[in-house]
Amino acid sequence: MAQKPSIPKGTRDFSPVEMVKRNYIFDTIKEVFQLYGFMPIETPSMENLSTLMGKYGEEGDKLLFKVLNSGDFISKVREEELMARNSNKLTTKISEKGLRYDLTVPFARYVVQHRNEITFPFKRYQIQPVWRADRPQKGRYREFYQCDVDVVGSNSLLNEVELIQIVDEVYKRLKLNVLVKLNNRKVLAGIAEIIGEADRIIDITVAIDKLDKIGLDNVNKEMFEKGIPQAAIDTLQPIILLSGTNIEKLAQLKDVLSASEVGMKGVEELETVFSYFADLDVSTEVELDLTLARGLNYYTGAIFEVKSKDMEFGSITGGGRYDDLTGIFGLKDVSGVGISFGADRIYDVLEQMNRFPAETVNTTKVMFVNFGEKEEKYCLPILARLRMNGVKAEIFPDSAKMKKQMTYANDKHIPFVIMVGETEMEEGLVSLKDMDSGEQIKLSPEALIEKLA
C-alpha cells in the first residue's frame, strides 16, 4: 500500500478559495504601496549563508534553513571533523546557501550589489515567501509570506510617518481595527546606559521583546541568567512600565534619560513623529510602548509593531529604522526604514473574524449550463462578450446531467447560471437564474451584459 502523501510541518497547501482570499490581501497591500510611490523587486529564495549569518542575532541564526551543497558534499570533510560532531563547524563545510529568513537583509544585499543602477532614496516593496526553522504553532509557520515596504538612502523621519500612514490605509481597506505600537531603539539604548548596562543592550532588548509572551517575571529571570545585575533589573522596572498618554510618557522619559545623549535623541525622534500626526487624518491608534524592543539586532531607531484590537493575536505587522544595514556589505552610512506585513497572520485574523468580502470567494459570476453542441455554439459568442465586459464567466465543458452541473455551480458559489434551450435560441434570449433567490428571468444578450457588468 502506497504511503499517504504529506507536507512538512509548518507549511500549508492553499485551496482555490484560500488563494482568492490571499490574493485579496496581497492586492490590497500592493495597491497601497504603489499609492506612496514604491516599486516592486524580487530576490532569490536562496542567499549565500555569508549574506544571512550574523544579521539576526544568535537566536535568528539557529532558525535559518541551510541548503546542502550539491554533489558529494561530505567528501571534503575530514574524518576527525565528522567525529567531533560540532554541527556549527560542520555546516560551514557542507552548506554554502540558505533559505532567506526575511526580506530586509536580502534587500540590503540587493541595494549594495545594484547601487550604481538605482536612484536614492530607493523606495521598494517586495511580496515573497520566507522560511524559518521555528517550532510550528498557531499563527507561526515555517514557510510564510511577507509583504515588505522600505525606503533606503534617507534619514528623514517623514519616512516613518508615511509608513504609519500606509499601515493606517491598509487596515482601513481590510476593515481591521488595529493598534500601532511605536518605540525607538535609541531610547532603549539610553535606558541601558542609565541603569549602567550600556554594553548589554542586545541582551536587554531580546528579553524585553518577550514581555507579552512570557510575562515580566520571566523577562527579569532571563536578564538575570544572562548576567545582568539584579540592581540594574530593579532600576529597569518602572521605566519599561511607564503609563499615561504618549505626551505624558515622553515627558517622563525626558526626566529619566536626561543624562543620556543617545536616549534623548530617541525621545526627540519620537516627539517629531508624533507631532506630524496632529495635522494628518490617521484614524489608527498609535501608542508609545517602551516594552516594544523588536528582537532583530539591525534596528537602530524607530521600531513599529501592529496588533489586532479585536482579538488576541501576535504581531501582524512590524519593522523599524536600520541606520547601517548596508554597511555589513560594504556600503557605509546608508540609512533605511521599513515595515513588513505578515500576510499569513492577517489571513488568520480576517478568517476568524469573518471579514473577507463575499466577492472574494465568488471567482466566477455566471456559468452557462451545457445542453449540447447546438447550445454551445449559441452560448460561446455571448460568453465571449461577457468576458470582454469584465464579467467572470465560464461554461460547463460537458453536456452532463443537470444535477451534476448545478452541483458544480453550488460548490463553486457561482451566484448566477444561464440556461439556453430550443425556446431561448428561437427567441434570441437566455434564461438567467439567481442561485440564491431561485428567481429566473429571460434576457437578451445585451440586457444580460448590462445586468451582470
Automatic annotation (TrEMBL):
The keyword Disulfide bond does not apply. GO terms for molecular function: ATP binding; histidine-tRNA ligase activity. The keyword ATP-binding applies. It is found in: Cytoplasm. Gene3D superfamilies: Anticodon-binding domain (3.40.50.800), Bira Bifunctional Protein, Domain 2 (3.30.930.10). CDD domains: HisRS-like_core, HisRS_anticodon. It catalyses: tRNA(His) + L-histidine + ATP = L-histidyl-tRNA(His) + AMP + diphosphate + H(+). Coiled coil: none annotated. Residues 1-381 form the Aminoacyl-transfer RNA synthetases class-II family profile domain. Its EC number is 6.1.1.21. It is an enzyme of class 6 (ligase). Pfam families: HGTP_anticodon, tRNA-synt_His. Keywords: Aminoacyl-tRNA synthetase, ATP-binding, Cytoplasm, Ligase, Nucleotide-binding, Protein biosynthesis. L-histidine binds at D102, L103, T104, R132, Q146, D150, R294, Y298, Y299. GO terms for cellular component: cytoplasm. GO terms for biological process: histidyl-tRNA aminoacylation. Homodimer. Belongs to the class-II aminoacyl-tRNA synthetase family. This is Histidine--tRNA ligase. It comes from Ancylomarina euxinus.
